[in-house]
Amino acid sequence: MKNAIAILAGGGPAPGINTVIASVTKIFLAHGFRVIGLHNGYKGIFSKEQEMIDLDFRIADEIYARGGSYLHMSRYRPSDTDFAEKFNIDFFTTNNIKLLVTIGGDDTASTANRVAKFLGDRNYPIANIHVPKTIDNDLPLPEGMPTFGYESAKDKGAVIARTIYADAYASNNWFLVSAMGRSAGHLAFGIGSAAHYPMIVIPEMFNRTEITMDKILRLIISAIIKRRLMGMEYGAVIVSEGVFHELDTKEMADAGVEFTYDAHGHPELWKISKAHVFAALIDNKLANTPLKVRPRPVELGYEMRCQTPIAYDLAYCSTLGAGVYKLFAEGKTGCMVCTDSTGHIGHLFLKDIQEPESGKILPRTVDIESDECKYILNYMLSYITPADYEAARKYVPDPENYDMHNILNWERI
To answer: Which domains occur in the chain, in start order?
Structure first.
């Protein structure tokens, strides 16, 4: 019987998943392996029957540049009871599987380690190699390397954001955009800077003060007033959904936000429209001012996840796919494949990026002190400065409280 590998994808879609699947398939087929694709993430391993498919070169060639995921995905996270009662070891032994390739985030990677350990304890050792994926760009990969899917998602988001901005100009209106980003503001910052938005709000900006709903609203209103002083009655603001993670629970409840949580304990941000929440709060905040502005809400999320990969991710994910074979051939297991900025393939073990005590992986956040960020935040955004205070009193009695530097407790340069 041929040696075989199994591939599954966990979590949510990201541009480049199919490129990874296709690249892994082609290179392992070339080395004489059977390649099995598992649908529905880990669910297939914890059931008597698997929804699976033998991946051949033709399938790989047809899917490598597609958006979405050819293999159905799942956020299923097996419990200890699932391992004890539902784990299907026959799937591995009957199919002679030597390697489990997983595509996903840190939760998918940690579950792969549990699967490998479970099999090893039952005298059927396999290798497991993980390909890290998230459009949020928040995994701590080597310096300068994005998580795959981020660049394609940002590109799609920027196209939509620029279209929204054109609408704002044409209709002399304001738009309030919310962008995905569970723990970091990379997407919102990347999209907002690419579209030259007059205000970007990400959690990393609050590095010297607590995040509150009031501060976020004042930043948005600051941009609206500044543009009005410049003779421009239109614009757009983009806010990272990650700010919701830092807001006080009571404050969110008062704003009408109530979260449910997924199997991993993460708030299900997709169940509410963050843009609608902020737009409604801005309406209330401006109701008693001369500013007759009612921002139109737009949610940027699922539109980006299944974007057709741009050339960057097609090439990047092909290298990661080849990297899976390289690490496997070298006898590596329990690790994530990665590359550096020179194209050299390497690996990371979960323990290398986890906190020793909690085991959690700290998200890679936007470097707010970088020259890129400082340039965007200090010179590209629109907000009230001391020179505007007198003119701004026409709209608010306390313009100094709408000065971005005062709101964020930043030093003025």
So the answer is: 4-148+309-353 (3.40.50.450), 152-305+383-408 (3.40.50.460)
pLDDT reported for residue 244: 82
> Which of 60, 63, 55, 71 is closest to 13 using CA atoms?
71
Contact 396, 220 (CB under 8 A): no
Sorting pLDDT into bands at 50, 70 and 90, what band is 269? Answer: low
pTM attached to this predicted model = 0.90
For residue 248, pLDDT beyond 60: yes
- Catalytic residue from among 106, 107, 136, 313: 136
Question: Catalytic: 54?
Answer: no
Nearest to 385 by CA among 412, 353, 364: 412
CA distance 281 to 237: 14
Does the structure show a pLDDT above 80 at 82? yes
Task: Give me the amino acid identity at 15.
Answer: P
